[in-house]
Amino acid sequence: MGSPDREDGQVIATRTAPGAxxxxxxxxxxxxxxxxxxxxCALLTGMLHDLPEGHSAVVTVxxxxxxxxxxxxxxxxxxxxxxxxxxxxxxxxxxxPAEPFTVLQQVFTGLGVALPPExxxxxxxxxxxxxxLCRDLHTALDTRPLVLVVDDLHWADTPSRAWLHxxxxxxxxxxxxxxxxxxxxxxxxxxxxxxxxxxxxxxPLGDAAVAGLVREQLGAEAGERLVGHAVRGSGxxxxxxxxxxxxLRLEPGGPELFxxxxxxxxxxxxxxxxxxxxxxxxxxxVCPAGFGPALLAELAGCPPERLGDALARLRALGxxxxxGGLTEPDVGQRVLGGMSEVDRxxxxxxxAKLGYDHGVANAAVAAILRRTxxxxxxxxxxxxxxxxxxxxxxxxxxxxxxxxxxxxxxxRRAAVLLDLGAAELLVDPDAGDRHLAxxxxxxxxxxxxxxxxxxxxxxVARGGLPGRTLVAAFRRPDVSAAERGALLGLYWLxxxxxxxxxxxxxxxxxxxxxxxxxxxxxxVAAVLLARRGLRPARVRGLARAxxxxxxxxxxxxxxxxxxxxxxxxxxxxxxADAHGEDVLARARRQGFRMLIARALAERAERHLAAGxxxxxxxxxxxxxxxxxxxxxHPMLRARVIGTEAMVHVAAGRADLARRAxxxxxxxxxxxxxxxxxxxxxxxVLLEEGRREAALARLRxxxxxxxxxxxxxxxxxxxRSAAAKCLVAAGERDDARRLLAEELAAxxxxxxxxxxxxxxxxxxxxxxxxxxxxxxxxxxxVELLRGTGSDLRYATALAESAGVGDHLAEAxxxxxxxGWRRVRTRLDELTGRPAEDPRHGLSEAQRRVANLAAAxxxxxxxxxxxxxxxxxxxxxxxxxxxxxxxxxxxQLAGALAAREGSxxxxxxxx
Length: 909
Hints:
By secondary structure, this protein is mainly alpha-helical. The protein is built from 44 helices and five strands.
């Protein structure tokens, strides 16, 4: 393919100097006719016609060997000469890479211009040099157009290719039509994005074209059987067809002639090659880039001083390219296929060992090892695992599976299985679960606690750690006491209610100790107590005891994260943040994407608790990028999606919350994750005004939490959200009952943030008209101050905007954190927002004005908008001033006139 004699069967191109200089352009000259290339010829003819008008363009022609690339380029050159355009036709050769700027030399020589000195320097050209060479060419052209045809560009030297790339991107100077051809598979040259580029891929000739050429060339001898053989046997390849027809003109041939010629075109390059060239071909077939000439020569058994000559000969034959590879995969398969199976395996193993001994990149050596049988040496596993760590997707799992074929001691086998399971969680989660479960319950040997607990952490991070797997690991005889303590803690931490789960209910796992000394069990006891909303001081003590323990070999990252969650529920947000950052840092050091994503999702929950909404959204986005939601276990996926929706609702973006729920739609399964999703769905439905559907979701969320004894309102305050639905439906007594229950549960829990949050929720649900509204807000402000729950505190301040300095403090917090909902509420309550550029009224003012214009009383407006009557009066005063009217009687007419005026402005040309 791409050999110097251009075996395209239609034309043999030679180096041709630019011609037709100074002659007037002749329009309407088409390309010579080529079989089944009408569209390509028409495209190129149009470009030739447009060139004198100043329209430069780039055309890349690619195709398989023998497809007629050279013929098409020769036709372009011929048509350009017939049109009296300046033409430079430069076919590249395998020897070109040995000398820089071979293409440039031919073009400048044809123009009668000396080669610029920049093209002859010893230093590789940079952008400045390439730009200067392009300007030199345009100066030589003197605004006259040029058709530059470069055949087999893949043979060209690197400086020439770089120069052509620079030339193709030029917008100023003489117009140039650059037409280049490349062999498919070697078509690495691409025009710049700034060029007017077109791509032509030459495909095999169709059956009708092949039949027509056979009849045209052979006349009466072209019977239907022969035509059928040509169609099927040539594959539409013009070079195969041309050679077959040439033979048929000399002597008759049977049906095997055409496929035989196709095979001969490849075999003739391999059969009869000197042994040295065959050995070099085999080395090229086995060794990827990175081995270098010295190692390639050693593997091939070729003297180093003769390797360069051997490679040059292979390139000239079209078997090897200029980058150290083979031009066709079949070449490698054929030369390796000529070896015995034993010799071939030994050859691959020797290549891999050679690469390893000489420091070749692990990825390159691993690619060879994947094609070998068992090597039986430790270095092979080392290379495969190292390559997997920098690989991507299914390549990683393939490398690790190959590593598992080698003989491994228990610790090494557990480590490889751990890496394999972690990688599979991102491409085949079910397979990942199986391999991680193997680490926990099937790999024998002592001292594997670090690997077992890492596997458990990964399974928990994804959200699905089966209880039976934990039980099997817990009962292993080779499990240490510290490891057994962590496994027991993981069992009781498992999402859902372990007492109810049929898959583990009959195994009789021991209960958590009443006063756990084990740090992992202390962390679990803390978070379980916190969910129930009991004994916050005890929860703090257990969580801090768990986090104070030094990180040992048998230490579960999940346990430390559980202690952090417990501190978040106690309202110790700063302390939780500090330890949470440590968990995230440890996850990053371990390098497992699933662990990092879970740590980010948990940090997003802490950000949400503190009101850091932008940071929460960013962490969730990063978690999704590391692990797409479809790869999370459904139980945890529901929690992550629910958290994202809650963040958007808190930010006042119900539209984004709905998009999050719909984008990664999942069912609210059992466990805490399902409760999170039900709660988030309820909030979004409430924002959308679908109160009945919202109430149903929220009640189901509460039912699930209550069934497990999870009463802490800091976990999910479903009662106050449901109360909002009931108030909107006029069922205020039921709403008060739910709010009272939430406040009682918050007081049972006893933290300032919980009790203050419950008072705020009651005030928001009942509205300003409720007798207890002011007292609830007062309690909320006092209790939430200094807790770290800044969003709830700012909301309480905003709702109490008429008291003392609350307005300024709320506004400052809202501005600092970018809380859109708080700012909007402050606008509604104070009547001093930024004006709407459409009509000078704020959104809050417009709502009040429209209701007033419709005849609604100030008291009813205040009730409808959940603001005070004084706020309504302030809004109306500002509206009257901005509209230039005296009072309510003129309001409807002024609004109508203003809207009509604005409509006219919008359509004004």
